[in-house]
Amino acid sequence: MENILPQHLQEVIFASSDSKVSKQISRLVRLGTLRKIAPRIYTPNFTDSSETIVRRNLFSILGHLYPGALLSHRSALEFKPTTAGHIFITYTYTKNISLPGIMLRFVEGHPAVEGDNRLTGELFAAQLERALLENLLPSRQTGALSKTLPVSEIEAKLEAIVRVKGESGLNELRDRAKTIADNLHMQAAFARLNLLIGALLSTKPSKILTSPLAAARAFGYPFDPARLSLFEELFVTLKQQEFIYKPDRNTSYQSFLHFAFFESYFSNYIEGTEFELTDARQIIEMNLPMPSRSEDSHDILGTYNLVSNHTEMSSVPKDYELLLNMLLYRHRMLLHAREAKKPGQFKEVNNRAGSTFFVDHTLVKGTLIKGFDYYNALTHPFARAVFMMFLVSEVHPFLDGNGRIARVMMNAELVREGQSKIIIPTVYRDDYLGALKKLTRQRDAITYIRMMQRAWEFSATIVGESMEDMQDKLTASQAFKAHDEAKLIILL
Predict the structure, then answer these.
(1) Same domain for 128 and 76
(2) Measuring CA to CA, how many Å separate 344 from each of 268, 306, 325, 333, 451?
(3) CB count, 10 Å around CB of 327?
(4) Rounded CA gap, 455 and 408, in Å?
(5) pLDDT tens-digit readout, 99-134
(6) Is 334 a domain residue?
(7) Is 459 found in the same domain as 339?
(8) What burial letters (b/e) apply to 205-237, b meaning 16+ CB within 10 Å?
(9) Are 140 and 158 part of one and the same domain?
(10) Is 355 within a domain?
(11) What is the pTM of this model?
């Protein structure tokens, strides 16, 4: 018999009113090369379960069996069945139809309108504005059986829109939703949507908001939820660890200053501000920039003036307002000679390093504030130090100088508790940056913590009453070498 079954649907075959197709399907079922998995649905796949096949081909099935159907309500936002296996469709009638592993919940309503999206074949999906309105309609059921999402999830979606598209984007959405509501008689749902948007934009009372993201936006401190999850990962891992103490052995005034010099030198070197050691030492000792490299020299001086000031380095933030003010002050001191880098100001444009995008400039304050809560719950100075360093580095709140400020904030935690400070030497640069990337991209907190522990162990051995003593120890540790020339040695 000539094969007249549609070839483009290789996994699911649909029953047909065409007698030739119907006869061929019956013949293939008898031969055992086709099996029926649901009313009007067949498959040549005898390996996977009926539930797996239906779920994998769900949109094709809906488009073929129910032409003109519209994925709606929560399904138009989630694009998958609920945890109870329900999916919601606006159609010409109200009815529940069971498929293997899926319950089709048909709701009688208006078909697709201009702006609704065609998914496949004759299946459509409600556009965002319509779906939001539908999710603000009353629902008799709750949880995974409800056709609507919790209002907190709607708030979070609205907050994500304003985070990405700004207030103008949210206002444009409101205007489109108003038109749809008038056409589809959903004015009551639009009234609720309008209240939520107004609360987010602080033009209406914010007490109606239930989502933490949305409430933070309304009170002026929107934050990056993905980064907050990352900070939680680091916090939990730090809380699960036990850390020793490494009291600082550079207790004299001179030894503290000597260590501060190398701390400043390496912190700038790692960011690409490279000087010969003798030149950097002359800049510090003479307090005089090199005329040919004035801005770079000021970076060295600015860092040194911060990390050599014992009083300044003994100050740590007690609340989030002090954290913000401390970051701004220290950044202004660090980059005071680089006016183009906006010293003492949080960034007003977004920045990135390679393929890594840092926190959006509109979310800097809120993300730092939320991250502070985790920092404040840590007790061991090393845990607080490495968390603070990552918090500032990951948010990247400034146009420039973020890595140096992050390390200043880190070492202040250690000085405050009389612990050895941490230097990231040149030879360890790639280990340091690699561990930061693994935490950012792979949520690998353990590698980051172990890397910082090794840096701390090394730094605690750099002790001396003279600059030459410390330099000798650093040389013996191969600290000045490039990463591809040597490995860091920790002296006994």
Answers:
(1) yes
(2) 18, 14, 9, 8, 30
(3) 24
(4) 15
(5) 999 999 999 999 999 999 998 889 999 999 999 999
(6) yes
(7) yes
(8) ebebbebbbbbbbbeebbbbbebbebbeebbeb
(9) no
(10) yes
(11) 0.65
